């Protein structure tokens, strides 16, 4: 239906949207990705850049350790 | 030894605390107040003759056989309807009683055929026993023939109804009313002419409302209602207590055997999950265990376009190990993974995840809970601190308000539904519990005999969070919050933040009505009932979890529980109705890629060190892939090996095309199952599995109750006596990979689980055998287990209120796909139907049908029975329509039990934001008239048939 990259972008945006009411939504989003994503998914979203990502999701991705 | 049924105490146990001592035939007995004289006598092994009494139903006092004499009382009262009193002196056998009983028996027998020797109940007939007990030697009356010579009703596939043998004790009618709550049976006519009838006189059992739960068969004292298996085989000669392998209720049964042949499954009265009740699946639908399509020989093939080649176990393991090791050498451990089964035992599940983590060397292990209750784990862990329901099933007896959301228990959890319905009906002047149903469909609970929901919130699919927030809005803004509880037990700042959010005018039922389609007044009334009606309990199912906001919905439920203080005692709490028999256990056992057993994150170094020391390996600290991620990675080429135990992901997981593409891209798919399921079409190795009847182990049900599964027959997946239980197969595979495991019994695996998992510290087989069951946590803090959780405080400390903002799903209706499809289950079939489709249960449900509202049907010129094409953005299939107003306009509904329908061809790969649990419950679709199966269905069938070819031995040489 869609490529893995698109799926990762959609998932990151979904997480960010659902954590929008946290004190620090970007940090919470990054933490969620850290806890539940496999390394190749983390690498994939980092390599993707910010295209299609919501501002909070993009910030979260930038917070992931490189 | 002759057959011994479970002891029948004649009347139900009393729950009174006060104890009463009386004398029966000169012996003192102490029983709870409210106990009948009959039951008190049974407690000291005095069996007062009886026919109309049985301990599954209330006493009735009609047969006049159980008469006794009581000192100081006139006459001969019926012992079943006479409650004990202090210092009562009872005589159960006197010349007068003997004479009266003989007279009664004589009348019964005058209207009963005397074919005892060839009767199916011979040796297991209470009428026969009682005739013997009262010393009946001759019958003076001419045969009354009121009931003799009637035609048998063979219509039910599992039991016969022979009205000629009926003594009209009405035990079956009362069991149907009181135990099952379907009220399908009735007594027609009066006096000597009374006859039992299923539904109308024109109905037979199959055509009636009967749901084939077996309660009437169990209650029948004669051969009137008898299992066809008993008719065919005869009475069993031994019994073994074991646990059902269908749903998450976890009913325990007596597997009644003759040799290694299973004669019948009879619900075990001492089972704490089912309390002696059963459903059509657990009681009757186990014939799949010996179905002709069962695969009993290991098979391998180099590529999936080849036919299967039957091989020895040794060759199968060597073939697999060689492939796995070669792929690991080339692509690394991260290309390897496995899926544990929620159908298998805790011990088997634990071994599969151990094989993946310690043997494959990756954390790419997941379980079918991914696609059902993973949001329950996430949501309840976040808010309460533990990934499980908070109550036992008995708790429902103390509920005053029951809120059911996204669950259809009468179909999916029927045995618990019967207990819920019992509480909803009320009893002995105690008013029934109030019922709130939140569901897009008018499920049976909304309205069925003697049950009617006080509030039905028929929401638009996908708007659970909005409805729950609106309920919270009413509770907070109308001052119904239990602030004393919240201050003591929850984080007050977080509560205030949350309360402020839900109080916003944008979260009022009036505003959200536009989104949810539920009238604001209905939401307000339901909120008031929930918050002020006394003990309120929430029961939910996959209609909560299988959404893009599944985890948020679980947390919104937890918020409602906390804001009203409905936690930590009987009658309240959060009750996820688990889908599969061991989905709770599979989650507990560390089947998720991010956590080890007991829900401890893989990044926690201390936990990892514990396992590393025990297993002698080092573990990866990063989470692995979840099932949908595995499929994505496979398509991308970075995931190559998948070991699937007892799950059919091709049929059960969403977006079939994508699953098929993922499986096709893998180099080594190992399917370990009973049948060549749909996933096996893409497999390279097939390891034949064993049924729950062929293995030892434990299952954990929705109440966190751990119960033993006991082997009653030798596994058939090997030459005589060499069949292997599933844990043995996993162990052999692990050893082919050089792991050197040497478990000789599942109890040793449980010992390892207990050693490594604090919440299971006190669990072992010996104790389970002795105590029947244990509810985790069982450890120093809770040595006897934990029927109710969070009693004095939440496991995480303070309860956490989480703001759950409604985020609409990306799956939207539009001009091309104007309808919303939601999916579910039906009583007689189970999930992908691998088992139930291979039983006579298919007589109730032979194909999936599409429920559609009359308005939507008329717009498209469709009527019931027409073939319709069901299309979504993901794919299309076809099935027959059923026009019904159970669904709202704009909503269509189907089940997913049949592979030829493949409802999941149309479901999308949208998923829960937190857990990737698929959004099965919301798919935008269009439907149109069709001539029959789609091209895709026909191609699929051809491909499936080709991939199931097995070389015959000659050809292989």
Helix content of chain B: 25-40%
Fraction of residues in β-strands of chain A: under 5%
Largest sheet of chain B, described in full? 7 strands, mixed
Instruction: Give the end-to-end Cα distance of chain B, rounded to a whole number of Å.
Output: 51 Å
The H/E string of chain A reads HHHH
Strand residue percentage of chain B: 15-25%
Can you put this structure into words, describing what you see?
The complex is a heterodimer of chains A (66) and B (957). With 66 residues, chain A is an all-alpha fold. Chain A contains four helices and no strands. The model of chain A has no long low-confidence stretch (mean pLDDT 93). Chain B is an alpha/beta fold and 957 residues long. Chain B contains 30 helices and 36 strands. A seven-stranded mixed beta sheet of chain B has the order 13-12-27-26-25-14-15. Chain B has a six-stranded mixed beta barrel with strand order 31-35-32-34-33-36. Chain B starts with 18 loop residues before the first strand and ends with a helix. The mean pLDDT of chain B is 94. Chains A and B meet through helix 1, helix 2 and helix 3 of A and helix 22 of B.
Show the helix and strand layout.
The complex is a heterodimer of chains A (66) and B (957).
Chain A (H helix, E strand, L loop, with lengths): L3 H15 L6 H12 L2 H10 L6 H9 L3
Chain B lengths: L18 E6 L2 E6 L4 H7 L25 E2 L18 E3 L3 H16 L15 H8 L25 E3 L9 H10 L4 E4 L6 E4 L16 H5 L5 E3 H6 L4 E6 L8 E7 L2 E7 L12 H5 L14 E2 L8 E2 L2 H19 L4 E5 L5 H15 L4 E3 L6 H10 L17 E5 L3 H4 L1 H12 L8 E5 L8 E2 L2 E2 L2 E3 L6 H14 L5 H7 L2 H12 L5 H8 L3 H13 L3 E5 L1 H4 L4 H14 L9 E4 L6 H6 L6 E2 L3 E2 L3 H11 L11 H10 L4 E5 L3 H4 L3 H10 L2 E6 L11 E4 L8 E4 L4 E5 L16 H11 L9 H11 L8 H7 L1 E3 L43 E6 L24 E4 L1 H6 L7 E6 L3 E8 L7 E5 L27 E7 L5 H13 L5 H4 L1
Parallel strand pairs in B: 1-4, 14-15, 14-25, 16-17, 16-21, 17-20, 21-22, 25-26, 26-27, 31-35, 32-34
Antiparallel strand pairs in B: 1-2, 3-4, 5-8, 6-7, 9-10, 10-11, 12-13, 12-27, 18-19, 23-24, 28-29, 29-30, 31-36, 32-35, 33-34, 33-36
